[in-house]
């Protein structure tokens, strides 16, 4: 599972090349929450670099601080120490360079799918014409398989369909980094599989950097170029990183039949059990 560096590019065992550019840089990151019993240090001296176009999944025990880290990257949670930069620029709050998909898509229930996606598009592309903005929103809704549901109210959509709108909404603002916090956690396994395929298909096409929290070891392996393991809190940091050297595009069958699959799985489960 070694990697080499050629001209500063990261080359995995299978010859997959990542551009040398660091998209996301977390340096000595620290988070302290004040609590009635005193300060609680969730993260301390957490260091992580994520390269442009990489898909990274994050696993770790419940409560270790995964959401805290992701929400800090999103600019939605104050940084207590250290810093986070996107393409070398320190983040100071939320911005259109980072799109977020939460476990629950929190759509405006009275608005249609199209109107929900347009909310973000209108903010990020204020100078585009109305028809251009509509085209962008419709393009991504089609990509997630909702071409027949543009005008359906969010409240009339199933949970899986609502999450499809959430995915379309996040991609439609054309972020540099996509942050996903257990986006499929509430879905049944069939819908989950369908949405993983949709996510990876759009990600493959758009080539954006993705960071996704999951509790599902198989999902973590199937989607990722690297699986990042966080230690248990308090004072959690990065405990280990596993390179997933499967070629892309991947199918579930090809991944399951790969010789390395059970080796990867064992590595992650051993980490979580110790
Ligand atoms: N606003 C807050 N104030 C105080 N403590 C908090 C706050 N938010 C989170 N915590 C605590 O920080 C720790 C990390 O929480 P966080 O939600 O980041 O963990 P997580 O790894 O994402 O958990 P899970 O896997 O269960 O979603 C937990 O102990 C949590 O109780």
UniProtKB/TrEMBL annotation:
<keyword id="KW-0547">Nucleotide-binding</keyword>
<feature type="domain" description="ABC transporter">
    <location>
        <begin position="24"/>
        <end position="257"/>
    </location>
</feature>
<dbReference type="Pfam" id="PF00005">
    <property type="entry name" value="ABC_tran"/>
</dbReference>
<keyword id="KW-1003">Cell membrane</keyword>
<keyword id="KW-0472">Membrane</keyword>
<protein>
    <submittedName>
        <fullName>Nitrate/nitrite transport system ATP-binding protein</fullName>
    </submittedName>
</protein>
<dbReference type="InterPro" id="IPR005890">
    <property type="entry name" value="NO3_transporter_ATP-bd-like"/>
</dbReference>
<dbReference type="InterPro" id="IPR003439">
    <property type="entry name" value="ABC_transporter-like_ATP-bd"/>
</dbReference>
<keyword id="KW-0813">Transport</keyword>
<dbReference type="InterPro" id="IPR027417">
    <property type="entry name" value="P-loop_NTPase"/>
</dbReference>
<dbReference type="InterPro" id="IPR003593">
    <property type="entry name" value="AAA+_ATPase"/>
</dbReference>
<dbReference type="GO" id="GO:0015112">
    <property type="term" value="F:nitrate transmembrane transporter activity"/>
</dbReference>
<dbReference type="GO" id="GO:0005524">
    <property type="term" value="F:ATP binding"/>
</dbReference>
<dbReference type="InterPro" id="IPR050166">
    <property type="entry name" value="ABC_transporter_ATP-bind"/>
</dbReference>
<dbReference type="InterPro" id="IPR017871">
    <property type="entry name" value="ABC_transporter-like_CS"/>
</dbReference>
<dbReference type="GO" id="GO:0016887">
    <property type="term" value="F:ATP hydrolysis activity"/>
</dbReference>
<keyword id="KW-0067">ATP-binding</keyword>
<dbReference type="GO" id="GO:0005886">
    <property type="term" value="C:plasma membrane"/>
</dbReference>
């Amino acid at each position: 599972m070694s990697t080499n560096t050629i001209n500063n590019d990261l080359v995995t065992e299978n010859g997959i090349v990542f551009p040398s550019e660091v998209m996301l840089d977390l340096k000595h990151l620290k988070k302290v929450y004040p609590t009635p019993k005193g300060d609680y240090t969730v993260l301390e001296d957490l260091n992580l670099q994520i390269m442009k176009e990489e898909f990274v999944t994050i696993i770790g025990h419940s409560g270790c601080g995964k959401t805290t880290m992701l929400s800090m990257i999103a600019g939605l949670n104050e940084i207590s120490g250290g810093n986070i930069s996107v393409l070398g620029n320190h983040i100071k709050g939320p911005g259109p360079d980072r799109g977020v998909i939460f476990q629950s898509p929190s759509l405006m229930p009275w608005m249609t799918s199209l109107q929900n996606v347009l909310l973000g598009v209108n903010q990020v592309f204020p100078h585009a014409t109305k028809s251009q903005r509509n085209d962008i929103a419709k393009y991504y809704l089609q990509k997630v398989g909702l071409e027949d549901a543009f005008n359906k109210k969010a409240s009339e959509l199933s949970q899986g369909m609502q999450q499809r709108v959430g995915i379309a909404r996040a991609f439609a603002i054309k972020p540099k980094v996509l942050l996903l916090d257990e986006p499929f956690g509430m879905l049944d396994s069939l819908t989950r599989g369908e949405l993983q395929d949709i996510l990876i298909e759009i990600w493959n096409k758009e080539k954006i950097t993705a960071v996704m929290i999951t509790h599902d070891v198989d999902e973590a392996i199937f989607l990722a170029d690297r699986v990042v393991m966080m230690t248990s809190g308090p004072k959690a940091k990065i405990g280990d990183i596993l390179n997933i050297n499967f070629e892309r595009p991947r199918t579930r069958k090809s991944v399951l039949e790969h010789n390395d699959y059970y080796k990867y799985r064992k590595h992650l489960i051993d980490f979580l059990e110790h």
